[in-house]
Design brief:
Layout: E1 13-19, E2 22-28, E3 32-42, E4 48-58, E5 61-71, E6 77-83, E7 88-91, E8 100-103, E9 106-115, E10 122-127, E11 133-139, E12 145-153, E13 159-170, E14 176-185, E15 191-197, E16 206-213, E17 220-228, E18 231-239, E19 245-249, E20 258-264, E21 270-283, E22 286-296, E23 302-312, E24 315-322, E25 328-335, E26 346-353, E27 359-365, E28 374-382, E29 388-395, E30 404-408, E31 421-423, E32 438-440, E33 447-451, E34 460-467, E35 472-479, E36 483-487, E37 494-502, E38 505-514
Antiparallel strand pairs: 1-2, 2-30, 3-4, 4-5, 5-6, 7-9, 8-9, 9-10, 10-11, 12-13, 13-14, 14-15, 16-17, 17-18, 18-19, 20-21, 21-22, 22-23, 24-25, 25-26, 26-27, 27-31, 28-29, 29-30, 32-33, 33-36, 34-35, 34-37, 37-38
């Protein structure tokens, strides 16, 4: 299992875009670099806490810290609290987002760190709504390395923490053993018991990314990922109230590639979300996949599942929440350029799904015209007034430092056009030549309008449509200073290249995504 730790930064400058009903801000915090905001929580109505990891400059050193910022109703910073120093640095696990949980007007965070002796304990911290620590616990077992990823309240007023633990006891091929980890603590963070769940083949690994406990049966459910041979698959572990294994699912691939989030539903079942890889579809050397949701009962029996959006290199769901009517809001990220081999461009996406996980609508957010800046949606919650708040981490394209982010939509989930919110048939992305040709809507469902008004003079051009294999699907001659309606009904979902040629020379190219 590859454990990659990515840190991102914060500073006092604020760049803001807002209009009535929504907020979008970036926070550049003083003396911080590469800030990685992980989640945002509404504490009281219209007051928020954004938390994550920062790299802070202390003297001539860079110190990884956990940083919380408090925001007022206009999303202005009211306070900042950072924790970590040269004797103990705090870390978060890259594959998870929300590692805090709110309970009784306090926040509880499960993470890990390095001490001055190079040990890596698990850490559990209680914060008040001003970001002050009430207490902090560190958990050591010999020289084992802990990766805490998620915490949930237990049915008896304590907490359950999951993640992974790496022990130096070698596996079959003399590699350290990585197991899913579960720890039960009381209300004050005192350890009561713990469990480790190993693969039968000790050279394979598994990790827990999100944990939940059923309040009625007291069963504990952990979702995450596992290695099965050379294949990464999701892991679903169902335990009794004492952490004894009842069943483990996922080794046959039925639950996708990785499960990142899980919620208990009003009907007593569960819904988990993540990604479903399709290794049989490789484009430009990249394996592709789709976002994935799966509904299952307390015994792990699948009731419904659904995959969403086109096959892309990155296409995942990080957060899912159930609404009062039994529908769902999900938040995640898609990548739009790697399948072309022309770079990386992440945009983030909110979807509304019906009770069985089928798509009702989806909206895309692209806050950067610079494709070098890639946003990964990390945290999402629904506020008391029915809006969505979410936060992202931005990688690449910045002259350091890079920011924390905060977004709040209105109750329609998209009053955001000035900063790049687009409806399902209205995403504007993947353009190679913005000056010469306009293509909308993009992604296209049934049609796409090509506009050539920006091309100088009355000239005759040829429109060519090719798939990613370079096969010519359409070629038509049209005059400039006109619009051309491209009927996309005949084409499958996917990515296409539109080229405009004059005298057999390409004068403009455009990426077109077809999503139906």
């Amino acid at each position: 299992m590859k454990y990659k730790l990515i840190f991102v930064f914060l500073n006092l400058l604020i760049v803001a875009f807002s209009q009535p009903g929504n907020i979008a801000k970036k926070y550049f915090l003083q003396n911080s670099q590469n800030c990685n905001s992980s989640d945002v929580i509404e504490t009281i109505p219209n007051n928020y806490i954004v938390y994550g990891q920062t790299f802070d400059t202390v003297g001539n050193k860079i110190i990884p810290k956990i940083t919380l910022i408090g925001l007022d109703q206009n999303a202005n910073i009211t306070w900042r609290k950072s924790y970590g120093d040269s004797t103990f640095t705090y870390l978060k696990y890259i594959s998870t987002s929300a590692f805090f949980v709110k309970k009784n007007s306090y926040l509880y965070g499960a993470l890990f760190g390095y001490d001055k002796n190079n040990f890596q304990p698990g850490v559990f911290i209680k914060f008040n709504y001003n970001g002050d620590t009430i207490w902090q616990k560190r958990y050591y077992v010999n020289d084992d390395q802990f990766f805490f990823t998620s915490v949930c309240p237990s049915a008896d007023n304590g907490f359950l923490i999951t993640g992974a633990v790496q022990t130096n006891t070698p596996g079959f091929n003399s590699h350290p053993i990585v197991a899913t980890y579960l720890m039960k603590v009381d209300a004050d963070g005192n350890k009561l018991w713990d469990k480790r769940f190993y693969k039968t083949n000790l050279d394979e690994t598994q990790e827990g990314l999100k944990i939940i406990q059923d309040s009625i049966t007291k069963k504990i459910v952990i979702v995450g990922g596992q290695d099965v041979g050379t294949t990464l698959l999701s892991s679903l572990i169902i335990l009794d109230s004492l952490g004894n294994m009842l069943s483990q699912k996922g080794s046959n691939g039925a639950f996708g590639t990785v499960l990142i989030d899980i919620i208990k539903l009003k009907d007593g079942n569960f819904m988990a979300a993540g990604a479903f890889a399709h290794p049989e579809y490789v484009v430009n050397g990249y394996q592709t996949g789709k976002s994935y949701v799966v509904k299952f009962d307390l015994n792990g029996n699948i009731l419904n599942s659904a995959q969403h959006d086109s096959l892309l290199v990155a296409n995942d769901i990080f957060r899912i929440q159930e609404l009062n009517d039994g529908t769902f809001i999900t938040a995640g990220t898609i990548e739009t350029l790697m399948i072309y081999g022309t770079g990386i461009n992440n945009i983030f996406r909110i979807m509304k799904l019906d009770k069985n996980g089928n798509l009702l609508w989806k909206k895309y957010f692209d806050n950067y015209t610079n494709n070098l800046v890639n946003e990964y949606l990390k945290g999402m919650n629904i506020t008391i007034d029915g809006s969505i708040i979410f936060t992202t981490e931005a990688l690449g394209g910045y002259t350091l430092p890079s920011p924390y982010t905060f977004y709040k939509t209105d109750s329609t989930y998209c009053d955001f056009n000035s900063i790049g919110c687009y409806d399902y048939v209205g995403v504007e992305a993947n353009k190679l030549s913005r000056k010469e040709i306009n293509c909308y809507p993009n992604p296209a469902s049934s049609f796409c309008i090509l506009n050539f008004n920006n091309l100088n003079g009355f000239r005759t051009f040829k429109i060519n449509l090719r798939n990613t294999l370079g096969q010519l699907l359409l070629s038509e001659t049209v005059p400039s200073l006109s619009n051309f309606v491209l009927n996309t009904n005949a084409y499958c979902d996917g990515v296409y290249i539109i080229s405009i040629t004059e005298n057999n020379h390409v004068v403009a190219e455009q990426k077109l995504i077809i999503l139906k």
